[in-house]
Design brief:
Helices cover 47% and strands 14% of the residues. β5, α5 and β6 form a beta-alpha-beta unit. The chain contains 13 helices and ten strands. The strands form two sheets. A seven-stranded parallel sheet has the order 3-2-1-4-5-6-7, with helices on both faces. Strands 8-9-10 form a three-stranded parallel sheet, with helices on one face. The structure holds uridine-diphosphate-N-acetylglucosamine (UD1). The site of uridine-diphosphate-N-acetylglucosamine has 18 residues, from α1, α5 and α11. This is UDP-N-acetylglucosamine 2-epimerase. One of its GO terms (molecular function) is UDP-N-acetylglucosamine 2-epimerase activity.
Length: 292
């Protein structure tokens, strides 16, 4: 079978890593990178660490507002589908690259498989929620990570082609955990010892783009009395600087460039586990929880 896989952003590089090995044992795979993430530390480092093959196509779409970014992907992906005529299009997760792959395929009546189907936050202001819902509704095969995801789909009337296959992120983690322990050096490079720090990651638009929410996060970080390591996403850096919060943050927090998968994994494995939730720390955006 000829399978065409679409990836484009960090989480998709991680999700595709365990699958490409399995797919290529029995099938032909064409790998398409939309170029949604393009800085070396947002893209190349993941391909290198996870030994993902060089993409057959890189669309170089880059950053822009959602409609423009997704639209550029649709135009370029369609050309590739028409040329390659795949038997199955494989999309991962919930980014704009996911939706572009699924939508283009369904318009051309190509079969679509969605890895990480059925996840819902039930917050339609999140671009990812729209991407998830629309992708699931045009998919023929829906590979769910949990039984909750299967039930979420059932509530939307999707029962055909649905499989609970487990969490591909967990597969990736299990595959790489030993490698991360052996190879990652960020902690040592920073002169910190195990469990004496916390790791922070912030990049959702709802957290970064609003002054109120971003200030609240920065204030919470400043209340914590042990070191915080904060690999900062370019979007977050842009808004921290825009809102004048950058200097305040850098005084208290160890701000570093985005990390690859292995370094991030190692930091999370060895970070301190318990901490009183700081005053003002908002748990509003708890991710992927089903309403009662
Ligand atoms: C995207 C996904 C999100 C995922 C995240 C992982 C969507 C809607 N969101 O969010 O679900 O969790 O990736 O990181 O698809 N930028 C750079 N260099 C890059 C990439 C981005 O500087 O290589 C900057 C640009 O200013 C860009 C901004 O980051 O406008 C946001 O990037 P984008 O890919 O649009 O969304 P993410 O926030 O990364």
């Amino acid at each position: 079978m000829k399978i065409l896989s679409i990836i484009g952003a960090r989480p998709q590089f991680i999700k595709c890593a365990p699958l490409f090995r399995a797919i290529r044992k029995e099938h032909e795979e064409i790998l398409v990178h939309t170029g949604q993430h393009y800085d070396p530390e947002m893209s190349y480092i993941f391909f290198n660490e996870l030994q993902i093959p060089e993409p057959d196509y890189n669309l170089g779409v880059g950053s822009s507002i959602h409609g423009e970014q997704t639209g550029k992907m649709l135009i370029e992906i369609e050309k590739i589908f028409l040329k390659e005529k795949p038997d199955l299009v494989l999309v991962y997760g919930d980014t704009n690259s996911t939706l572009a792959g699924a939508l283009t395929a369904s318009k051309l009546h190509l079969k679509v498989a969605h890895v990480e189907a059925g996840l819902r936050s039930y917050d339609r202001t999140m671009p990812e929620e729209i991407n998830r819902v629309l992708t699931d509704h045009v998919s023929d095969l829906l590979f769910c990570p949990t039984e909750t995801a299967v039930l979420n789909l059932k509530k939307e009337g999707i029962t055909r082609g649905v499989y609970n296959v487990g969490d591909v992120m967990l597969d990736s983690l299990k595959y790489n955990i030993k490698v991360a322990e052996r190879k990652a050096t960020t902690l040592e490079d920073m002169g910190l010892s195990s469990k004496e720090y916390l790791v922070a990651t912030v990049h959702r638009a709802s957290n970064t783009d609003s002054l109120k929410n971003l200030s609240s996060i920065v204030n919470a970080f400043c209340d914590v009395d042990i070191p915080i390591i904060f690999p900062v996403h370019p979007r977050t850096e842009k808004y921290l600087k825009h809102y004048g919060l950058w200097d305040k943050l850098c005084e208290k927090v160890k701000v570093i460039p985005p990390l690859g998968y292995l370094e991030m994994l190692k930091l999370m494995l060895t970070q301190r586990r318990s901490l009183r939730t700081p005053e003002g720390f908002r748990r509003k955006h708890t991710y992927l929880r089903c309403p009662a």
